[in-house]
Write a structure and sequence with these properties.
Belongs to the WrbA family. It catalyses: a quinone + NADPH + H(+) = a quinol + NADP(+); a quinone + NADH + H(+) = a quinol + NAD(+). InterPro entries: Flavodoxin/NO_synth, Flavoprotein-like_sf, Flavoprotein_WrbA-like, FMN_Rdtase-like_dom. This is NAD(P)H dehydrogenase (quinone). It comes from Forsythia ovata. The chain is α/β, with parallel strands linked by helices. The chain is 28% helix and 16% strand. The chain has seven helices and seven strands, in the order βαβαββααβααββα. Strands 1, 2, 3, 4, 5, 6 and 7 form a seven-stranded mixed sheet that branches. β3 and β4 form a beta hairpin.
Length: 243
């Protein structure tokens, strides 16, 4: 400012305004839906022991129920036999179907998203072959690798009072120590759970079959209940996987 001259504009040139170029943000991929990978289905292991084929019959029908649910795949396994061939022959046990493999290692359980375990009763508890398999899962228990995985049971008994409920009920301890989630079927089968006009195995704990002296085959109602349990468990696995 000069003396009494008011404001005199500066002769210095003002810098040109800086042009800011805004880059376009990358397109968001959060709203894009990935196509499901058919080779990435959730795996439900159906693991069973069957001496005369009754539990195996339920397992096969159960697999049909699981495989009917999109995105879930059932895999059948046997547990290792603990009896010798001579003893099995004396008990008139038929040969095992070799198309269903024996599960290779207890460590394989960690690959599954859920389980259905099937076994015949022995005095109201699971058969020794299945118990021996559970006893071999100590390392999985130590590391709690099965914690949070859902599991259910299906059984075979000789008589109506032979353990359709207690055989499954006493097996829950195996799941509890592994931190697994027991999934019963309740009465989700609907009206079929209340029918009294024919002999039917199964309970709110899971599907079941009456074997009698070994010659009785599973009824269509018993097989239908097994198929329902497969579908039900597959739906539970999908629900848990969505988190």
């Amino acid at each position: 400012m000069g003396k009494g001259g008011g404001c005199v504009p500066s002769k210095k040139k003002l810098p040109k305004p800086t042009t800011i170029v805004h880059e376009s943000p990358p397109e968001s991929t959060s709203n894009t839906t990935a196509r499901p990978d058919p080779n990435n289905n959730l795996k439900l292991f159906i693991i069973f022991y069957s001496m005369y084929g009754h539990v195996e019959g339920l397992a096969r029908r159960m697999k049909m129920g699981v495989d009917a649910v999109d995105g879930v795949e059932a895999v059948l396994f046997r547990v290792p036999e603990t009896l010798s061939d001579d003893v099995l022959a004396q008990m008139r046990a038929p040969p095992k179907d070799e198309s269903i493999p024996v599960i290779g290692s207890p460590e394989d359980l960690a690959l599954a998203d859920g389980f259905l375990f099937g076994f015949p009763t022995r005095y109201g508890c699971m058969a020794a072959q299945m118990k021996a398999f559970f006893d071999s899962t100590g390392q999985l228990w130590r590391e709690q690798k099965l914690s949070g995985k859902p599991a259910g049971f299906f059984v075979s008994t000789g008589t109506q009072g032979g353990g359709q409920e207690t055989t499954a009920w006493t097996a829950i301890t195996q799941l509890a120590h592994h931190g697994m989630l027991f999934v019963p079927i309740g009465y989700t089968f609907g009206a079929g759970m209340f029918k009294m006009d024919s002999i039917r195995g199964g309970s709110p704990y899971g599907a079941g079959v009456f074997a009698g002296d070994g010659t009785r085959e599973a009824s269509e109602m018993e097989l239908a209940l097994a198929e329902h349990q497969g579908k039900y468990m597959a739906a539970i696995i999908k629900k848990l996987a969505r988190g």
